[in-house]
User: Fold these one by one.
Assistant:
Number 1:
Amino acid sequence: MPATSAPPAWTSDDLRADAWRPDVLGDGFEARLLPLADDDEGPVVATLVRHRPDPDLRPARAVLYVHGWSDYFFQAPLAHYWHGLGAAFYALDLRKYGRSLRPHQTPGYVEDLRTYDEEIGLALARVRAELGPVARILLMGHSTGGLTLSLWAARHPGQVSGLVLNSPWLELQGSSIVRHVSAPAIHQIARFQPRAPLPNIDPGYYARTIAAATGGEWTVDERWRPTPSFPVRAGWLRAVIAGHATVARGLGIDVPVLTALSSRTLISPRWTDDMRSADIVLDTEAIARRTIHLGPVSTLVRVPGGMHDLTLSARPARERFYAEVTRWLAAYGWG
């Protein structure tokens, strides 16, 4: 949310699986646990967050949002945007992220992006239970969440009405050549030491562009969105590279897809204020080339001045992003 006081003290143990409880985002937001199957680290949960609905209304449309790497849902204005369009808004903190992260877990770690099918399926089931089986549902994903949802939508035709991608991580920085060169080494490490942390090259510049304390507009919970980011581990990166390879072969997603990206990438070892108006995390040109592989109805939008998370960009860029989503919805969005 735009600069505010820090989030109140809150732990995932404050939630239960049988009811909605007040969420860390405060007034207007609720959350509930989604119990998942245990894994080799022990008990696992995901967390579903919702913008509290009007008790007198039952929307016929809904959005389910999934965050990116080393992240969680905190973008309250995004929920307000969808609510203003008459859609019920839900967000999913995936296992081992944000509200769902437990002390015994390796943050963000999975070895196959299909693992997330479990919580995505449970979240959609909960949405349909609340809105009815004929409600139209859009998926929205940012960065790695965009990759995860693209792969999910390709494997689950006929389940949703559309897909909105905010700077989805569809390819490694540079090109597929980089992926082909680096993949064998990553696979070898992951084979023997899947949880081995790889060198952390996060200089903290992206966090600097976001945080209110360093010139940004947003306040986040550092427990759930640390600087530098969670360690990238070989087994997780192998899963992401496998996802990129699947995208490159073509997904054939059966619903309209909107991909929104910044108009430029700026990746540099030195800080500059220009980083506040560019994607400094991903190679947007490589991702733009991948959008034609998503499905037969795929729209690409480039947002001048946009940052990696377009919803966190300076006001002119984020307003342009929301305007482009609204225009796309009028033509394609709800099927």
Number 2:
Amino acid sequence: MKNQSTSLTKIALQKFKKNFWGMFSLSFLVLCTLVAVFAYAIAPDNSQNANQMHLSIHSKVPGFTVKMLTIPSAVEDGNGFASFFFGKKTTASEIPISAFETTPNGILITEYSGDGTNGLQKEYKTSLFPKVKSPEAIAKKYVSEKKFLLGTDKYGRDLLSRMLVGIRISLAIGFVAVFISLVIGVALGAIAGYFGGKVDAAIMWLINVTWSIPTLLLVIAITLALGKGFWQVFIAVGLTMWVEVARVVRGQVMGVKQMQYVTAARALGYTDFRIIFKHILPNAMAPVIIISAANFAGAILIESGLSFLGIGAQPPTPSWGGIIKDHYSYIILGKPFLAIIPGLAIMSLVTAFMLIGNALRDALDVKA
């Protein structure tokens, strides 16, 4: 006979693996994390913040194609490692064109005009293209057809690239906010539940006061106090999500501290710090893990809301909420995809975290 494991952790892991939606959501989140890490390597526009603008091709539909003349940058971005993960500071300039022809001195192009009129004509000398020696070679090496799979935004930037880079904001806000909420919530909840008395009353007063303030209002107040920016939003969201964690940890600790092994630990002379962190918390963290998944989803929604209001990640940093803010009016102007695409991305990511939370709840329910 095979030895069957009685470890609760292994049993929970086996139950989680059998949950289709839990595993599907986990796989989706792993894929999203990989995309976030290697966003600039995948994105068609690898400039910093995917901020290459082409105003002549703004608000184009998904699948739009146009000929593009690429003019090399005079200064190359020398740090390959940094540009791989954070984008290129200096990139080649791209000019949408409708037609071109070679001249004895270089290439004559007709700029793309989205309104159907003839665009301006400009001539670029061969000297601007250091890797070619003849005008004919310019067309072969530097003129190409570019396809925008998700179309372009109102500034003519590649929407797919902005979406790929923007996923970093959503995942980062979740990780940082949940980490801050766990550090504060677990510490205060454990102290309140273990020591009780006046310590518990003081911490519960702080929890109730914080709980009574609307979350979004508190986040906005903290953001305005710290200033607009990337990290300020992370800290603000984290400082508002610890309350629920603290309440759950307090209740769990109050129940676990009555167990016999905790009494035995006190009899052996262990310090309160060791009893809390070595004996009580490891047996009280199952509900906290489930809440963390929900908080992850909540943090993404709050950041998207803040970016929509203009106090989240600041331009030109791409954020899914910011993309919706820039294009929500296009819903009634015949180009709703500019707002629907980031909206669906937010919905998918939040749904994935909620499904993982449900799967974890089922897996960690040892009574079932």
Number 3:
Amino acid sequence: MIEAYGLTSNSRKELPPAADDVSFQARAGRVTVLLGAPGAGKSTVLRLMLELQQGRGIAYFRGRPLHRIAHPSREVGVLLGDVPGHPARTVRGHLRMLCAAAGVPVRRADEVLEAVGLVSLREERLGSLSRGMDRRLGLACVLLADPHTLVLDDPADGLSAREGDWLHGMLRAHAAQGGTVLFTTADPKEAARNADRVVTLDQGRVVADQEAADFSRTRLRPRVAVRSPHAARLAALLTKQARTAHRSVEVVREDGNRLSVYGSTCADVGETAFRHGIVVHQLADEIGDMGPGAGGAPAAPGLSGAAPAGAARRRPALSPPAALDG
């Protein structure tokens, strides 16, 4: 397991530290997520844990700080950013070089290539890999020395939904075998779907430390996903209807012809569309982003403006529980 105590980065001139007295645990056999908006301090916390950045506090990996572990790569597998390596080197050659550095047999390179589904690309150059294949290679590098603990900084960033599901399946399998998994993300839905425990960070501080089920129940909110060629008209009608009824409904205009409706139901939205002759191509319940009480003031009754696309993602993502530097 990982035990982090009082991790604090050095001050940045007149700015507060990027990480400020961060303490948490990541237990073996479980997937733990550090959740926070970009700039909240997540990456700084990982660097402090791994002794890559100066500061205060300490992190223990199965009872020992990293500098007291004889072979760190065999205890902790780390992926911070893209896979470092010469773009002209082959995938297999890169892994074999890392085998030599880690003191593990070269056959291990082929074993991890098979584990991450890169056997057919073993002779590809690093510079030619897609984002998804680069992430697979990164995980292969992390697994090379068969470490007990995996520490990954936003490993699903830029991946398709399918690649993301594959990645999280691999992390879950590692935890199921008794390993410890810690990764960061800025996406609360990714955290809710894939974690056992969610540690939420905001402005360098831990603001919540919850089981994933509690996190989903208390910090995510349901929404109705709507797709209609008349999305703007429907948004205006839903807004007017909510204000008239003094209901706390929020309508957010997404890209194209999509709406996200918070505080309503499929039945209510569907009935409004039907009464006004509006064609609807999609009407479905979803889990949305952080809801009222998760960082911002509660919405006023009937507030539901047709916000511009992406407004939902710009809402305060976290409440007294929030984020770090990602």
Number 4:
Amino acid sequence: MTQPYYRDEQVTLLLGDATERLRTLPNASVDAVITDPPYEIGIAGQAWDSTGIAYSAALWAECLRVLKPGGHLLSFGATRTYHRMVCAIEDAGLAIRDSIHWIHGQGYPGGKTQLKPGHEPIVVARRPCHGSEAATIAAHGVGGLHVDGCRTSTGRWPANLILTHDMACGAQCATHCPVAETDRQSGVRTSGTGAVRTKAGHFMGHGGLGRAGDVQVTYGDSGGASRYYPIFRFESKPSKRDHPTAKPLGLMRWLVRLVTPPGGTVLDPFTGSGTTLLAARDEGAHAVGIEQHEPYARIAK
């Protein structure tokens, strides 16, 4: 590995071009890739956000190489350029598994002919397994999702839609908060009775939803529809003053938990001001970051 810009017991930060620095990392050396690459829309007039790097199959092929078999890749994108990034990821050999949609309502339209951006998609991809999924998990410790560590506050299965409070929310939600708006439109609903029941048969096969004879407890709770989804505060460290696309630390910790085994290693080839690395550290994981621009690397350090 090249000489690091920063290193401690959990975090290593490399300064330089992402593709070049990735080539210095060993094969199958990381458990997950979680990153927020350039959106290729020239955000805030920044030249680094319009280089085309997010569309580089060669870059994503390096991510594939350093991932362990079965390891997941999560990457943010912009709504109008996300598809090209996903195609490059797929062309590199990763399998597209899903997409997560982060609803935040914090965006602003770039002009009178554009809509206000209210969400950002996150691709969920995976390096193909060696053999069966179960065999890959047994051999490499990755391949599945850590459901129990990422359940909603009401104990529900993690969803591929994430809600974030408005920045102005305090003890009560602001007028245009996505969480409050979701509950306003749904109204109060009750889910089940809280009864314990035994399934007479399986539902939709055995795909993680249970087997015949399983005991199931219905929720028996009431509230708005927001309780079905993970919810975060729009808090980031560093803040958007440090970097124009900083993400909430709580959201990044949730993503780390979702795809990283305990004590595993997360790679972020577009570190920016370091939120992914902070999230990995706070979750007890190791992290390797790459950042091309020294001012942002300095903030992360």
